[in-house]
Amino acid sequence: MTAEYTVHGDVAVITLNNPPVNGLGHATRLGVTDGLVKANADAAVKAIVITGAGKAFSGGADIKEFGSPKAMQEPNLLSVILTVENSAKPVVAAIHSVCMGGGLELALGCHYRIAAPGCSVALPEVKLGLIPGAGGTQRLPRALGVEPALNMIVSGEPVKSEMLAMLPGQKLFDKIAASPESLAEEALALARSVADVRPMPLVRNLPCKHPQGDAYFQFARNMVKGMAKGFPAPAKCVDAVEAATKKKFDEGMLFEREIFIALMWTSESAALRHIFMADRATSKIPDIPADTPQREIKSVAVIGAGTMGGGISMNFLNAGIPVKILEMKQEALDRGVGTIRKNYEAQVKKGKLKQDKYEQRMALLSTTLSYDDLTGADLVIEAVFEEMGVKEAVFKELDRVMKPGAILASNTSTLDVNRIASFTKRPQDVVGLHFFSPANVMKLLEVVRGEKTAKDVMATVMALGKKIKKTAVVSGVCDGFIGNRMIEQYGRQGGFLLDEGCTPQQVDKAIEKFGFAMGPFRMGDLAGNDIGWAIRKRRYTEKPDMKYSRTADLLCEKGRFGQKTGAGWYDYVPGKRDAIPNAEVVKMIEDHRAALGITPRKISDEEIVQRLVFSLVNEGARILEDGIASKASDIDMVYLMGYGFPIYRGGPMHYADRVGLFNVVQAMNRFARNPMDDAKFWQPAPLLAKLAAEGNSFT
Ligand code: NAI
Predict the structure, then answer these.
(1) Are 625 and 684 within one domain?
(2) Residue 457: which CATH number?
(3) What is residue 472's three-state secondary structure?
(4) pTM exceeds 0.70
(5) What is the pLDDT of residue 1?
(6) Cβ(383) to ligand 1 under 6 A?
(7) What beta strand segments (E) does 9-146 contain?
(8) CA neighbor of 278 nearest in space, from 486, 473, 487
(9) Beta strands 11-16; 3-8: pairing state
(10) From 74, 125, 331, 387, the catalytic residue
(11) Catalytic residue (one of 85, 105, 181, 345)
């Protein structure tokens, strides 16, 4: 059992003990009900305290039971709360550190609540596409007042206990303890002081009204609609809280339950729950135990103060880690530091960064022109020109000067990290850290594990990724790593679609309607079409039998590189990012089609979306087979955090699972029969074919 039962004089204490955050899994729930039975049966016990061991009162549902039948196995949380309410002896919740979700719902079922100051209190279910499902929407408005309760339920954000205790008329906390240390003693004293009070107070019996009633809820609905971005749960939070003001308590509970179960089945909630788990799973590397020792990173050096070097540096400055940037010339250093300064100043202007914080960060930054100044750094990240020769020279220098045990990282986006490692006499210390542009903004960090990269280096950089607030995903060494290797197939499909009859706008619109932040052609214009051009030119000689549309090359031959040249697939007005369709580009596409003897056909949005998304899925499956990614959910995180894949669809691999792999394979077979497409590419990856045949899924 994961709850302990102890008796302190005339008070029984039930201590939730299910590390790390006392999740309310089946064994813990049983521990609570057993404790209540024992306490009620013991004549020497006059009152009961429920509290949590370690770092939390309770963080809520046990994620190990997420979505499984075990979550509802009796006693489920609703039954536990009912048992608390029906206890013949008063139950006091002694709340500290973290009290969230089911943990708060349990506390709301208790007769009294005392909280330590500084405790984070929340009903975060909305973040998983749900509403609280064990009375949270019915009890919190009664205890706290309708408006503050709805704010908490709709936002899912934590609020500090002492802030909540200041709300006028609140009945959530009967007392705030003097300090976290005195909570246990004060809870025992409170329990003793109420031991004989009858009838015992219950939150369910408190009145629940809003003075403006309908008008307030109409206002709340309008507010929520604007912010919900296509997710159904926030509006349902409003419905449930409104029910608390209009229905009898038990009817409100049933209403909440109906909504909760309906939301549980939505694809949006499934996606959010998948992402929650996928995010935690990124840091688990199959052959690297969680307790692998880490190297200490107290200072960082960055080579190259260009687009990436500057952004990369900012991440570490923001985390309070000193950075030294090296360049070849003073002008390049000055330019790089100037850009960092400008970025911070923009944040200060917008009120997002305080002046003193800005100064503190800049004070952590230093520059040099000499490698001999870098010897003290624990980690060096190279972000120089993307040429093997340049990388070779840099890594030979780094090998010469860096202290033993320092980590040598490259931000290369296309080059072979194993080769880069071989330029040094310490390949075990070399790793790829592939940031995305703008590196101070984008959440994704691909950690490229070389053949010889040491396990403690991997453990160190994964932890460091967390410290600089990135989603770090491990990739093996291959051309393009996870993200760009997949995007190449997606881009190729975009080209075929143009040749067959689409306009860039049609393709972009279709995939943007699906939920992508930006379609492939707008994305090309933003990133620079010349980058893809350079890669294709390399491919034409490296992989001569790979099929490509040449339309994008024609565009580049016209110098239409995208936003930076004011013209790409679309036109751009200086200072604005709006993509304006261009008739000449459309004509260029049509002429090319005619020259190839292709009669254009009308292509449905559905086909566009399937070809683009399933190309990601098929390449993703190959990436799994090749062991470049260790799990499908890592691929999803790369696409969600780095490529604008719609959050509510959970990433390409999760999306394929939801569509059903059988259906995905059928569609691929259809695409393979299209003579304009690449039949070889559309052969389902063996892993995908196998899972589909077994009726299985990636996850
Ligand atoms: P950039 O051209 O903006 O900056 C490169 C900087 O490195 C320049 O300031 C240059 O003076 C300096 N540099 C060149 N050789 C040097 C040397 N031997 N010693 C010291 N400094 C030297 O290039 P960018 O875009 O920052 O790219 C850098 C690296 O990051 C490349 O490997 C690139 O593939 C990779 N990358 C770029 C992304 C992007 O979106 N721009 C995204 C992810 C990775």
Answers:
(1) yes
(2) 3.40.50.720
(3) strand
(4) yes
(5) 65
(6) yes
(7) 11-16, 47-52, 91-95, 98-100, 112-115, 120-122
(8) 473
(9) antiparallel
(10) 125
(11) 105
Structure tokens at 621: 């499956």
Say how many Å lie between the CA of residue 386 and the centre of ligand 1.
7
Query: How confident is the model over 666-689, as a mean pLDDT?
Result: 97
Model pLDDT for residues 48-80, shown as the tens digit of each residue: 999 999 999 999 998 888 778 898 899 999 999
Which residues constitute the domain of residue 329? 300-475
Burial class, 593, CB count within 10 angstroms (exposed 0-12 / middle 13-18 / buried 19+): middle
* 185 tagged catalytic: no
Mind listing the pLDDT tens digit for each residue in 337-387?
Answer: 999 999 999 999 999 999 999 999 999 999 999 999 999 999 999 999 999
Sort residue 651 into left (φ over 0), alpha (ψ -120 to 50) or beta. Answer: left
In whole angstroms, what is the distance from residue 382 CA to residue 304 CA? 7
CATH assignment at residue 214: 3.90.226.10
Tokens of 68: 């499984």
Total domains, the chain: 3
Structure-block tokens of residue 230:
């296509």
Q: Is the shortest distance between the CB of 355 and ligand 1 below 6 Å?
A: no
Domain-ending residue, one of 475, 496, 521: 475
Residue 293 domain-assigned?
no
Region of 236 (left: φ > 0; alpha: ψ -120 to 50; beta: rest) is alpha
474/484 Cα distance (integer angstroms): 14
Sign of CA pseudo-dihedral 520, 524, 529, 533: negative
What digits encode the pLDDT tens for the residues 183-202? 999 999 999 999 999 999 99
Tokens 């990724």 identify what position?
465
552 within 8 A of 499, measured Cβ to Cβ: no
What's the chain's average pLDDT?
Answer: 96
Concerning whether 105 is annotated as a catalytic residue, the answer is yes
435 strand-pairing partners: 445
Distance in angstroms (rounded) separating the CA atoms of residues 681 and 204: 61
Cβ atoms of 94 and 187 within 8 Å: the answer is yes
Paired residues of 301 in beta bridges: 324, 380
Ligand 1 atom having least distance to the Cα of 304: 7
What contacts 341, CB < 8 A, 6 or more positions away? 362
Return the structure tokens found at 208. 């629940």
Q: Which two tokens stand for residue 675?
A: 């003579």
pLDDT bin (cut points 50, 70, 90) of residue 699 is confident
CB-based contact 365:340 (threshold 8 Å): yes
Q: Are residues 370 and 436 in the same domain?
A: yes
- Span 239-264, average pLDDT: 97
According to the model, what pLDDT value does residue 499 have?
A: 97
CB atoms within 10 A of CB 554: 15
Q: How far apart are CA 121 and CA 99, in angstroms?
A: 5
User: In Å, what is the CA distance from 377 to each residue of 296, 333, 346, 364, 365?
Assistant: 10, 18, 29, 13, 13
Which residue's CA is minimally distant from atom 4 of ligand 1? 306
**468 shares a domain with 492:** no
Is residue 309 in contact with ligand 1, taking CB distance under 6 Å?
A: yes
Q: Which of 453, 475, 497 is the last residue of a domain?
A: 475
Q: What is the pLDDT of residues 614-631, one digit of tens each?
A: 999 999 999 999 999 999
Going from the Cα of 295 to the center of ligand 1, the distance in angstroms, rounded, reads: 26
CB 518 within 8 A of CB 511: no
Residue 364 near residue 321, CB atoms below 8 Å? yes
Indicate if 21 and 118 belong to the same structural domain. yes
Report the alpha-carbon distance of residue 395 to residue 373 in Å, rounded: 15
The answer to whether residues 386 and 503 belong to one domain is no
Closest by CA position to 130, among listed 278, 275, 277, 269: 269
Count of beta carbons in the 10 Å neighbourhood of residue 576: 9
The string of DSSP letters for 221-243 reads HHHHHHHHTT-SHHHHHHHHHHH
